[in-house]
Amino acid sequence: MKDFQALGVSQELLARLKEYGITSPTPIQEKAIPFVRTGGDLIAQAQTGTGKTLAFLLPIIESVDPKKSNVQALIVAPTRELALQITNEAKKMVEHLPTIDVLAVYGGQDVEQQLHKLKGAIQIIIATPGRLLDHIRRETIDLSEVKVLVLDEADQMLHMGFLQEVREVIRQTPTVRQTLLFSATMPEEIRELANEYMKHPENIYVEQKNVTIDRIKQIVVETTDRAKQDTLRTVMKQEQPFLAIIFCRTKRRASKLNAALLANRYLVDELHGDLSQAKREKVMKAFRECQIQYLVATDVAARGLDVEGVTHVFNFDIPHDVESYIHRIGRTGRAGEEGRAFTFVAPKDRRHLELIENGIGKRLERQRMDRT
């Protein structure tokens, strides 16, 4: 297997990847990155959880001209959650490249605040179709100089009824451009879209390795926000993990939960983006050496974290997209061992649970917990 350097990734981005514990490219990255760098059109059939986001983000970031303030790359995603996830990945990668600006454009945001941001230099926009068209009609986003267009999770856009909006967005971009289409499945309508708007695309197919996910017992624990900490402790007591990772949505929530578990005398520490590299390494060393039993982490820890002996993953906060879910639960059930993953779901989380179940193609077992 090639490394990122062999794929032509720049030193600046190699340093960022290393910082986030990403050292080896996934099959989709290995196949797609060198091709995307040639400037050709690409159809990539790949499931969520294969690392496809970095497969298009890395070459896009390197192709952007920071001296130009116009929108040079447009990534269209079906949901605000996916748009935000891609934006977070992109912002991590450009953190030390201050001349490249990334903006997420999606429904539910404060329009005035968004308009203010759009007055600055934005080279990469990640958007949902509806809100993007709204800005195009207001003439607050100009796509006339877009060099790269990415349609991510195209089949989801079809299922959600966005295909007409997607066509309209494509028509707003230059006819001479690079188009990258990523989709888990290839329905006839997506094939037709590709035939209509792409020029001699290269086809890449990456099979999803479901071996690890199939070896993981996945359980949904129905609870409420108020009872969530008590419920977590009940499940921990019942399960008695050897090593476990507990995922939280934000750094603040991870710190708060870590403090609560420490107060209850659990062997626990936290891992998130606010920690220095030295502190992160110290925490990981303690976890690998079983000096701590529980690691309370944000999604930063889900990337490239490979620790032998993790028997359980607890999604204290439900992930907002399938890719994050697969990355998180994939920290257990490794090296042929069976793993267990518990996802805590409050009533407001039902929509995200539905998204995850649709994405992995199975209904998860439910377990109801009484408060202790």
Task: Provide structural commentary.
One of its GO terms (cellular component) is cytosol. This is RNA helicase. It is an enzyme of class 3 (hydrolase). Pfam families: DEAD, Helicase_C. Its EC number is 3.6.4.13. The chain is of the alpha/beta class and about 375 residues long. The protein folds into two domains: about 10-205, Rossmann fold (3-Layer(aba) Sandwich), CATH 3.40.50.300; about 210-370, P-loop containing nucleotide triphosphate hydrolases (Rossmann fold, 3-Layer(aba) Sandwich), CATH 3.40.50. The protein is built from 15 helices and 14 strands. The chain has helices spanning about 10-20, 25-35, 50-65, 80-95, 110-120, 130-140, 155-160, 165-170, 190-195, 210-215, 230-240, 250-265, 275-290, 320-330, 350-360, and strands at about 40-45, 75, 100-105, 125, 150, 180-185, 200-205, 215-220, 245, 270, 295, 310-315, 340-345, 365-370. The strands form two sheets. Strands 3-4-2-5-6-1-7 form a seven-stranded parallel sheet, with helices on both faces. The chain has a seven-stranded parallel sheet with strand order 10-11-9-12-13-8-14, sandwiched between helices. It is globular and about 60 Å long.
